[in-house]
Amino acid sequence: MEKVNLTSDFILLGFSDLQYNHAAFFSTILVIYALTWTANLLLLSLIILSAQLHTPMYFFLGNLSVVDISFSTVTVPKLLSTILHGEASISFLGCFLQMYFFVFLGVTEIFFLSVMAFDRYLAICNPLRYKSFINNTVMVMLASSCWVIGTLHSVVHVYIVSQFTYCEDRLIPHFFCDETPLIKLSCSSTSLVELLIYTEGSIAIIITFLLILISYVLIARAIWKIRTSSSRSKAFSSCSSHLMVISLFYCTIIFIYFRPPSNYSSQYDRIVSLAYTIITPMLNPFIYSLRNQDVKQALKKLIVQRSALS
């Protein structure tokens, strides 16, 4: 069998084996991608330009917007290419670069979501000491930790998978270079490595999920003790958007990566992957902005200021 080397190409099949309206699907993905860029850039601009949004929560949210823009950009251009041409060629190096950034940004997003949950816990359960806990130095350290952990996690995974021997079957039944389909293309023995990757990845997801779960259990207990319904509603609304984002992201991640290898289905994985690679990055800024009075007020104030200057 022919071994794939650095000069060989993989072929991303995308959705070429499924029957669908190519023009409608292409248009839908393109619109979603454009909305992802527009909404996240608008939210990021608001956070930078509006003094009232210069708080820890919006600092982390700004980082999340950067992750979402980058996350969708890693996969969507190639997806659009596979829709147009039926399949898309990607070099050995390009495939593993795409996998690196995909894993890096996915893990970084998971850790930012957990940091944001911890931030909401401190803000609601320890409001008087919140500013002393989360100062500028702590904010930068927490954000930097998310980026660094994502980088290290991705380097380990990509290095391990890139050491496999890949033979003449170069067809990847996915719209991007993900770990599972690449491992299944290998003609090396991968059972031990699969267990290692699955265990290490599971630990990262479980730790962040438990941190989020514990944070919101404590938040719910604190909110329950609030006497007035209006104060209780205000406290809950400050974290309900974050809960929606977590639900969208974690449900799809758990569906794909917390299954036995025997239950792997390329068709289902491709469809579900659309949710967390394309839909979630678009919805995040809308969920936070449409349900958040601070963002709405900052947008109105910015519009009034720009109108006055013109």
Q: In terms of structural class, how would the helical and strand content be classed?
A: mainly alpha
The sequence of SSEs as H and E is EHHEHHHEHHHHH
Residue runs with pLDDT of under 50 for 5 or more positions: 1-5
CATH topology term: Rhopdopsin 7-helix transmembrane proteins
Mean pLDDT: 83
Any idea what the shape is? Answer: globular
Give the strand line-up of the largest sheet.
2-1-3
What Rg, in angstroms, do the CA atoms define? Answer: 21 Å
How much helical structure, as a percent, in the residues?
over 70%
The span between the termini is 68 Å
Q: Give the CATH level 1 class.
A: Mainly Alpha
Give the total of beta strands. 3
Q: β content, as a range?
A: under 5%
CATH-assigned homologous superfamily: Rhodopsin 7-helix transmembrane proteins
Tally of helical segments: 10
The major sheet is characterized as: 3 strands, mixed
Supply the number of structural domains: 1
